Amino acid sequence: MASSDVARQPDKGVRPLSLAGHVGFDSLPDQLVNKSICQGFCFNILCIGETGIGKSTLMDTLFNTNFENFESSHFEPQVKLRAQTYDLQESNVRLRLTVVNTVGFGDQMNKQESYQPVVDYIDRQFESYLQEELKIKRSLHNYHDSRVHACLYFISPSGHSLKSLDLVTMKKLDSKVNIIPVIAKADTISKSELHKFKIKIMSELVSNGVQIYQFPLDDETVAKVNTTMNGHLPFAVVGSTEEVSVGNKMVKARQYPWGVVQVENENHCDFVKLREMLICVNMEDLRERCKLEEMGFKDTDPECKPVSLQQTYEAKRQEFLVELQKREDEMRQMFVQRVKEKEAELKEAERELQSRFEQLKRLHADEKAALEEKKRLLEEDQSSFSKRRAAAQLLQAQSLTANGKKDKDRKNSGFM
Ligand SMILES: Nc1nc2c(ncn2[C@@H]2O[C@H](COP(=O)(O)OP(=O)(O)OP(=O)(O)O)[C@@H](O)[C@H]2O)c(=O)[nH]1
Ligand SMILES: [Mg+2]
């Protein structure tokens, strides 16, 4: 039975009544729409793919704009995640879009170095959301949810098979994010090869137990289109923001010496299918589809008994609080340890200063003693010099007196 029929079925004991006039609750859908428009929306896309595989071009093509793009080198020692957030507006609907790119993905010799930073990034976003969610006073309405809503996984158009890095990465992420695989630069692969490649990819994903995002079938308004589109996965995409004249109109395309590949022509590639599915039909499902497993939510307990969401939530909350307490204790211990270390460092510095001061004091005392000794010697010299000068002056005076007397005697004898 369709879900809308279930909703229309009156419950036992509930009587349907007709209204005699207008009441006003028929405005409820409008109220919801107005509230949503006022709040705006947020959507976060993670693009995983090797350097130069066409991630930025596809994002520009999807959102009909030019995002800030940086070309990455193939020599990044490790994968970095670069998140850029933009405010977009279409009619009166505002969308805060975050595009996260894997810079240097696949350029490392060690595969773990390629996927681990991606896993860590996704976990961090969940963690911070969970922390906000578990706060007693939540402010989720103005909290910028940075959890990844959709992950576009760019597969290289080798026409051969998936690389082991693709399988390992998707396997690590499939319980954490909604993975939508796309075959990048699909204009570089022939139609028949592409057909076989798609089948090969899907069978490899299944045999390796990789769960990709399935467009949901529970909403009957979109179930039909979603069923068809699930059969087209992975989408083979071509990106370009270049406008080329085809017939009498300009279309987004890639021009080659032998012809033109039109991005929005469904006979040329699956770009339109991807845009429809990702943006027009399932964006809300992707936004809302909470990967509860990521937070540890399960339908049954270890003994396979069913547990309610509330029980799991409470258990999870308790677990989280215990973890928080543990971390707080660890931080406190770390703080005490750091204070002790700093204290010891300061004491050591003080000791060094003290010994330097003592050394300087000793030096100063030695210098003072040496100077005093010099002063004493100088004073001795000065006093012996004074004595010698006095003796010399006395001698000089005596000799002057003696000479005076001799002159007088000579004069007296001359007159006689
Ligand atoms: N043939 C073909 N070339 C494409 C396609 N999309 C992008 N390119 C070209 O591939 C090159 C790299 O494209 P980008 O979009 O910068 O690739 P990227 O993955 O963002 O690169 P990084 O951010 O440096 O890792 C450019 O020369 C694009 O013109 C496509 O669908 N087909
Ligand atoms: Mg780029």
UniProtKB/TrEMBL annotation:
Listed Gene3D superfamilies: P-loop containing nucleotide triphosphate hydrolases (3.40.50.300)
Residues covered by the Septin-type G domain: 39-305
Keywords of this entry: Coiled coil, GTP-binding, Nucleotide-binding
Region called Disordered, residue ranges: 396-416
Residues forming coiled coils: 332-388
Pfam families named in the record: Septin (PF00735)
Stretches with biased composition (Basic and acidic residues): 404-416
GO molecular function annotation: GTP binding
Cross-referenced SUPFAM superfamilies: P-loop containing nucleoside triphosphate hydrolases (SSF52540)
Keyword Lyase attributed: no
Protein name: Septin
Source species taxonomy: Eukaryota, Metazoa, Chordata, Craniata, Vertebrata
Gene: SEPTIN10
